[in-house]
Design goal:
Elements: E1 4-5, E2 10-11, E3 26-27, H1 31-56, H2 61-78, E4 82-85, E5 89-93, E6 98-102, E7 106-112, E8 118-123, E9 128-132, H3 133-138, H4 140-156, H5 163-185
Antiparallel strand pairs: 1-2, 3-4, 4-5, 5-6, 7-8, 8-9
Helix pairs in contact: 1-2
Length: about 190
């Protein structure tokens, strides 16, 4: 905690601060809930498999180890990335690794379509982050940090491609924010 990542030029912890508050980091607010959901799913599957084996009388230490490994793999697949952003950086942290990009040095932003649309961000220092676009929609502060850095990169001329992907996410964030305001004010 409190270390600096000299290669990337940003703080590693989520509470590094500047005098104007621009370096204060923000995190995905729903990460903890998603993590506990992954733990519950893996635990429920393990309990179900062990109970089923015990009920049929076929439980052995080898089979129990196999079920534990299977549910451990399920947890690794379901475990969400922890997303945080600061003044000019955005980071995702998985179980064993953190990836970070400098948002003011972005060179490309690509939208990877699929079951869950994701954004692939690359910076000029070689940093690469894949982030679920739904995280940006749910937590507008992360989006504001990314957007401010991307605008600076575009103004400096380093952002070569990705304006369309950023506009698409911007429209989604603006739409969800407007819906939330209408819902809160009773105008929905």
């Amino acid at each position: 905690m409190g270390r600096r990542d000299d290669a990337r030029g940003g703080p590693l912890d989520a509470h590094a601060g500047g005098s104007d508050g621009s370096d204060v980091a923000t995190n995905d607010l729903y990460w903890k809930r998603e993590l506990w959901s992954a733990v519950r799913c893996a635990g429920a599957l393990l309990a179900l498999l062990l109970l089923l084996d015990w009920g049929t009388g076929r439980i052995t230490p080898l089979r129990a180890s196999l079920w534990c490994a299977l549910t451990g793999l399920l947890f690794v697949v379901l475990c969400p990335a922890r997303v945080s952003a600061g003044g000019n950086w955005l980071a995702t942290r998985r179980l064993m690794r953190e990836r970070r990009v400098r948002t003011d040095l972005l060179v490309s932003v690509r939208c990877m379509d699929g079951i869950s649309p994701r954004l692939l961000l690359r910076d000029s220092l070689g940093g690469r982050v894949v982030i679920d676009s739904e995280v940006l929609v749910r937590h507008p502060q992360l989006w504001l940090r990314l957007n401010a850095g991307a605008r600076k990169a575009a103004a400096d001329g380093s952002l070569l491609c990705g304006a369309t992907a950023l506009r698409r996410v911007s429209r989604r964030v603006d739409g969800e924010t407007a819906r939330a305001v209408f819902k809160a004010s009773g105008l929905e």
